[in-house]
């Protein structure tokens, strides 16, 4: 018993000494000896970390982390890198568990001293961002990670960061919300719908940010021809690809959760629309969730859009009213409202998607030239958007007869395949559909013999006439 008391006293004394520099705002300790020790440890762990000598770097890093938590902001960037490598190399399960616990403590301590750390760096730190990093590592490294804890951390991180949240954190937030719903549908029923709305809005804001960045780098490269700008644009392009995949996964998590089909949503909202016809927030919520799930032919969506547009003209409300007129057969009025929706939309990502949807409407009316115009407008707004290229390909394939020669007419499919190849090259979310259409259209191209009889061989250029007016290559 006496030994236990002494041990506890020694531990408390050590903690008091270790933290004494914080109380007095001394980053490197109170004494010159402390400072020398701290700086030497920082130097030793930094050099060994750079050389990937993680076992050697670890005790030096831990000494600084434990006793001088404000010595360097880099402690909290280097710590996870160091510990993750030690976790990967650890063969002893107990040691691995200790490293995992320390990894979690890095994020906890960073959040604990966040206000003080803010003053040490120009790059402002964010509580939501740190929490997002912690929960991603919690899910990855902690055995049997508690789903409730993960969801609570994800929810807090995303609510703090909103559109600044990393796309993979927002995706995990929706995944764990769906898990919460499957575990307790009644308790989490309304929350998963709100989570889906939030996640869908935030991921679009992320895409808008990336699209603005890539346009900026491309513009700089065109003006200055600096290769670094081109490289940065390519890097952002990869981020856009991943964010678009995350957006598709967010939709999939909600749909596959079974929380609400279009019919379910219509049943939930239909009887409440009249009572909330003057409540713009409620109406916008109905419009948002139903449009995201493509429930645009449901009465609840159409009615909510009509009431909302009368109160406050917004892109979503105008689009909904457009679908109502389209359903009634008043195509001219519908297209007028669709154009209004495009003009009202502020988000570049959403504006591009509205242009694409209008193009689909024109396609359904067999107005292929206008469908292509809107698809091209969508592409000009979002250069990483593959669906408009697929729409253009479908427009070309719908009217292959542009000459009196059936063999040349078949060359239209080469032009259509060009668009499909472009779609899958820029947008990983459309690869499956693009490949399916490529296989279908390839079967419609003319035979090599028929092409040879007209002087057309592999590599020959041919211009498709008519409204298409586009050059493609025989292959």
Give your account of this protein's structure.
The chain has about 475 residues and is an all-alpha fold. Among the domains are: about 110 residues, no CATH class; about 120 residues, no CATH class. Helices cover about 75% and strands about 0% of the residues. It has a two-stranded antiparallel sheet. A hairpin with a 5-residue loop joins strand 1 and strand 2. Helix 4 crosses helix 5, helix 9 crosses helix 10 and helix 11 crosses helix 14. The chain is globular. The N terminus is likely disordered.
Primary descriptors:
two-stranded antiparallel sheet, 475 residues, globular, mainly alpha, 75% helix
Task: Describe, in short, the structure shown.
It is built from 24 helices and 2 strands. The chain has 475 residues and is mainly α. The chain is globular.
SSE blueprint:
Blueprint: H1 2-18, H2 20-23, H3 32-50, H4 54-67, H5 75-89, H6 93-112, H7 114-118, H8 127-141, H9 147-161, H10 167-183, H11 185-224, H12 227-257, H13 262-270, H14 280-292, H15 299-311, H16 315-328, H17 331-344, H18 348-364, H19 368-381, H20 387-398, H21 406-410, H22 412-426, H23 431-442, H24 448-453, E1 461-464, E2 470-473
Antiparallel strand pairs: 1-2
Number of strands: 2
Proportion in β-strands: under 5%
**Order of SSEs:** HHHHHHHHHHHHHHHHHHHHHHHHEE
The number of helical segments is: 24
Q: Which structural class fits the helix and strand makeup?
A: mainly alpha
The overall average pLDDT, rounded, is 91
Record the strand order, biggest sheet: 1-2
* Straight-line distance between termini: 87 Å
Shape: globular
* Largest sheet data: 2 strands, antiparallel
Overall helicity: over 70%
């Amino acid at each position: 018993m006496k030994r236990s008391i002494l041990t506890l006293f020694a531990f408390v004394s050590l903690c008091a000494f270790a933290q004494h520099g914080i109380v007095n705002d001394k980053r490197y300790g109170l004494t010159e000896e402390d400072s020398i020790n701290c700086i030497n440890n920082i130097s030793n762990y930094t050099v060994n970390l750079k050389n990937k000598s993680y076992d050697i770097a670890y005790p030096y890093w831990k000494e600084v982390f434990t006793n001088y938590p404000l010595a360097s902001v880099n402690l909290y960037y280097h710590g996870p890198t160091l510990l993750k490598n030690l976790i990967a190399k650890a063969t002893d399960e107990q040691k691995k568990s200790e490293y995992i616990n320390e990894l979690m403590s890095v994020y906890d301590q960073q959040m604990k001293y966040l206000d003080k750390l803010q003053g040490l760096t120009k790059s402002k730190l964010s509580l939501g961002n740190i929490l997002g990093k912690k929960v991603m590592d919690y899910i990855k490294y902690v055995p049997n990670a508690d789903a409730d804890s993960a969801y609570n951390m994800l929810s807090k991180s995303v609510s703090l960061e909103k559109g600044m949240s990393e796309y993979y954190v927002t995706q995990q937030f929706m995944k764990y919300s769906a898990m919460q719903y499957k575990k307790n549908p009644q308790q989490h029923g309304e929350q998963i719908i709100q989570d889906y709305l939030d996640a869908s809005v935030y991921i679009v804001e992320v895409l808008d940010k990336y699209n603005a960045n890539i346009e900026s780098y491309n513009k700089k490269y065109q003006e200055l021809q600096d290769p670094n700008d081109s490289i940065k644009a390519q890097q952002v392009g990869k981020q856009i690809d991943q964010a678009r995949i995350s957006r598709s996964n967010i939709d999939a998590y909600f749909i596959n959760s079974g929380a609400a089909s279009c019919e379910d949503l219509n049943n939930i909202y239909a009887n409440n629309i009249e009572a909330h016809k003057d409540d713009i927030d409620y109406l916008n919520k109905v419009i948002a969730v139903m449009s995201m799930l493509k429930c645009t032919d449901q009465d609840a969506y159409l009615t909510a859009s009509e009431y909302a547009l009368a109160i406050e003209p917004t892109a979503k409300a105008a689009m909904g009213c457009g679908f109502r007129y389209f359903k009634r057969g008043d195509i001219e009025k519908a297209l007028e409202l669709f154009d209004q929706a495009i003009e009202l939309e502020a988000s570049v990502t959403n504006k591009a998607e509205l242009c694409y949807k209008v193009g689909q409407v024109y396609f359904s009316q067999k107005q292929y030239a206008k469908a292509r115009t809107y698809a091209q407008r969508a592409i000009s707004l979002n250069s990483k958007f593959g669906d408009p290229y697929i729409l253009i390909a479908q427009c070309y394939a719908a009217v292959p007869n542009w000459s009196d020669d059936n063999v040349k007419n078949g060359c239209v499919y080469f032009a259509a395949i060009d668009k499909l190849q472009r779609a899958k090259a820029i947008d990983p979310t459309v690869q499956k559909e693009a490949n399916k259409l490529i296989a279908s259209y390839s079967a419609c191209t003319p035979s090599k013999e028929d092409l040879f009889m007209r002087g057309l061989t592999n590599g020959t250029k041919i211009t498709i006439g008519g409204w298409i007016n586009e050059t493609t290559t025989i292959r």
